[in-house]
Amino acid sequence: MRNARTDLGIWLKASVCVAAFMMSNAAVAQSLAPADQEPADEPAIEEITVTGTRVVRDGYNSPTPVSVVGADEIARSATPNIADYVNTMPAVSGSSTPRTTSNQVGAGRQGINSMNLRGIGEVRTLTLLDGRRVGGMVNNGVVDVSELPQQLISRVDVVTGGASASYGSDALSGVVNFVLDTKFTGFKGEVSGGITSYGDNENWKVALSYGTDFANGRGHILLSGEASHEEGIYDPTNRGWATEGWAYINNPAYTGTNGQPRVLLRPNVALSTATLGGAISCSATSACSSLRGIAFGPGGTMYNLNLGPIVSDPIMSGGTVGDNSLRNGVDNSILPEQNRRNLFGRVSFDVADDWNVYAEGMVSHLDTDTRYYYGGFANNLTVQADNAYMPSALSPQITALGLTSVPFGTMKGDNGASGAHARHGYFRAVAGIDGKFEALGSEWTINAYYEYARATLHNKATNATYLPNFMRAIDAVEGSNGSVVCRSTLTNPGDGCIPYNLFGIGVNSQAAIDYVTGDPYRKDVYKQNVVSINFAGEPFDIWAGPVSVAFGAEHRTESANGFADAITTISTGNWDTTGGLPTIGDYKVSDVYFETVIPLAMDVAWARSLNLNAAVRAVKYDTGTFATWKIGAEYAPFDGLRVRGIVSRDVREANLADRYAGFFQAQSSFQDPNNNGAATTARSLASGNPNLDPEIGKTYSVGVVVQPGFLRGFNASVDFYKVDVSGAIGSLTIQQIVNLCYAGNQDACGLIIATPGATNQYDVYVQPLNLASESTKGLDFEASYRFDMDDVLPGMGGGVTFRALATHYIKYTIDSGIPGSIPTERAGTVNLPDWRYAFSVNYDNGPFSLTGTARGISGGVINNEYIECTTGCPTSTGNNPTYDNITVPGATYFDLAATFRFGQERQYELFFNVRNLTNKDPAIVAAGPTGYGSWTNFPISAGQYDTLGRVFRAGFRFKM
Length: 960
Known about the structure:
- By secondary structure, the protein is mainly beta.
- It has a 22-stranded antiparallel barrel. The protein has a five-stranded mixed β-sheet with strand order 1-4-5-2-3.
- Strand 13 (294-296) and strand 14 form a beta hairpin.
- The longest helix has 20 residues, at 4-23.
- The two termini are 50 Å apart.
């Protein structure tokens, strides 16, 4: 009779195996070797020890949760870069990717791939390469992991939880450590390419790596290079969701007492006050209401714009959307064009037994191009009745109304799309030494290194409108000789002004367009210098075993400098879109640390093991000296069960962008509480704040790890975490600033001024602040199971690996602490879903591997402070507005990856990958009811949903 435990193990293996078997019928022939051949070797299971601490100790498991992504998983994913795979991990949420940064012009972050653990912030996640710091690629210090040597990465360690005491400043939410195979020997390469099922974003990648020993094995050389290209997606309107025009619009029938919602979600939202060729933008209640909706088409043809059934200037739902929608048939990127070139080299040499010196260098280049909305004027221009280009039939109507001018809106169709072109250059050099020596009767290790990193950014806004010239040019009048001239030329004949025709499409000469457009730019240089030394050893034993310690010191400097074009330097407000002003400033950080692991019990009746882990670090910033610490314990009452917990105090200094970012502007808007919530155009003028203090974090984590002996190959863990950040560095939104001003906060009112020379537009100044607090808590789940197929189907061969990861975001509260504001809750919103999950099953029999993955997020709402209602709504307020629909559905995506290995040593591989197998559309996540986004943005959330559709990728790898 079978043992019950044996039955349980076989039942679990069989149940997990069903999915793999169904996917792998085609592989059975590959798995059954002919009778005259040797059975195929089973893939080896590599045992990896990852501690999440600087202490070096065999077999020790840190109380800090650590997830590991192996090289095989990365290879099977077959993504263009490793960031695409790591970002599918549930504990990684809200990372910057090329899809989320496509239109971040002023910040210059297009194309960047960075890591964001638990949605706490990418600047609070420390990214390391082989345990060493990597200089940032942009002014906020984040690392573009796509620039790392992808082919040499052997695994990725994701340390979730505060780790400042062990790893240093910036590790407030955790650490992502990319570990290289520094001993790789041989020659390997990859050629791959991909495309979406819509026939766009064609892409390719070529990578080669070489490693060899020299000097009889004492030395080793590594060289790895990569080149890749992605076409990008400029016009996504071959996707159905991109043509439906969903957006939020203010409800024109709303009153504070009629029970209707203040904001409505509707399709086919477009401008009501402007078109590509321009329109008279008089309101329905103005003196010129009879002219409302007169628009201008090709060649200046005058026609009447068909207003939809719901109109809330400057937008409407329905009506004429063909020539006033900026979502259909125009360049409006959802993914930038990207060109990457990376080169990595490393030389190491054993100068003596147990002493190794090394030097490594990395050079990379990223070139991106993106295009977006026709930067325009929704309803904030004024056209004089004597404008020389005004159709002859219109001018008498204006005069008859007793007016000398009318309001006007245009998207400047003759000018074409604006855009951004960013060039990132990067150089990093490291020299170091690793060694072992005897001291105090025991063996010690030392590693020390110096790192220098230099990143350059040339950020250019393309085809921007030069506003001073534009305002002069549109005020066109008839000159003394009957020609059309600028009004300014009448009093200043030598001003060089070229008149610009607002009335229609195809009506301006190239000279007129060139006079009002340009390519503002900025150039930044960011530098990082790091000197670090670390010691680790076991100086003495106590009753339960050796006491392990690690200690060391680090000094780091960060600096930024640069310049902008002359016009931007005078004022960023000279352009409607701009590359911004440079980041100029520097700071330094010095710290020392001590960490220990103390065994309190080993192989006693009540414990298999009990270890205490503690660390302390003193960090000196320009603003003062701060202490970080952690204390944790790991307890195994018996084999197969571990309980772990940790408490830590962490610190993060304001980075270069927080402190010293130069002004850059972005088009924005707000709902004006002084005008019944009417949409009001604004410009966001954002910059750094040199008066910031460091933010302080407290992390609490407790969890259980299960590895039952009766179920070999099974591992599972669950961890609860809570993170509190005081003095959190963050910025208020424009709407929050306006709401505070309306509530009587005079400091907030001082940040709002009328835009000089514009009508119905405001400039709002935005700077980062030390807010009162951020607090988050959640649960991390991870489970894996590996078994041989022979245990279930004798003779089939191969192995099955099942892995499941999930994170439940229970709460994430942000409290600015400013009187008049309210705390906001992020968890459960589209930006931080309650659940993120990923499940995969892999079958591998040596020559053939097949992996199926299901990944997804739970549903939620647009904003937790919004009130959803259709009838009986309470009065809408600035902090708690009423919407008829704020629900956002969840999504599950399925991926499939196959690999076929061949050759005498299986040194060749063909691979094929399909992401989003079912071509699932992203959920509708609408912009509005105010701002350019309501008529230009596609209704998607690229940070959480798959916006590309089904993606195919195939390629060839070799290793010799």
